[in-house]
Design a protein that fits this description.
Layout lengths: L2 E5 L2 E4 L4 E8 L8 E6 L6 E6 L6 E3 L7 E6 L4 E6 L8 E8 L6 H4 L5 E4 L3 E6 L1
Parallel strand pairs: 2-11
Antiparallel strand pairs: 1-3, 3-8, 4-5, 4-9, 5-6, 7-8, 9-10, 9-11
């Protein structure tokens, strides 16, 4: 059974930092592309960042480029999202997701439809 469990969310002031973690189990970890998405109630889910197997390629959404950093630890079966210079508009439920492919073109790495497994999410709230 595949399971993705996010942690690390919380309340932070604008300009602050948070680091999210997503522990995965039940899948052949090293062979899967991993990503973070976020969603605000009433809006579509938004791509945040993705990393391929081997961490040779990372992709970021335009709104987080230069502020967020995605990384993965194959030994710990965990993917991380370091979020810096947080803004109130970063407030959302953050989800990690796993794809069936190990690497893909950038356009596929950004697509929600490419990810088969999802976590339950962790809330990030940024106060102004």
């Amino acid at each position: 059974q595949v399971e993705l469990v996010e942690s690390g969310g919380g309340l932070v002031q604008a300009g602050g930092s948070l680091k999210l973690s997503c522990a995965t189990s039940g899948l052949s970890y090293s062979a899967h592309g991993l990503a973070w998405f976020r969603q605000v109630p009433g809006k579509e889910r938004e791509f945040v960042a993705a990393v391929n197997w081997g961490s040779t390629m990372t992709v970021y959404g335009d709104s987080v480029q230069g502020r967020f950093l995605i990384s993965r630890d194959d030994a710990e079966n965990t993917v991380y999202l370091q979020m810096n210079s947080l803004k109130p508009e970063d407030t959302a439920q953050y989800y990690c997701a796993a794809a069936l492919w190990s690497s893909a073109p950038m356009v596929r790495m950004k697509s929600e439809q490419e990810y088969l497994y999802w976590g339950q999410g962790t809330q990030v709230t940024v106060s102004s």
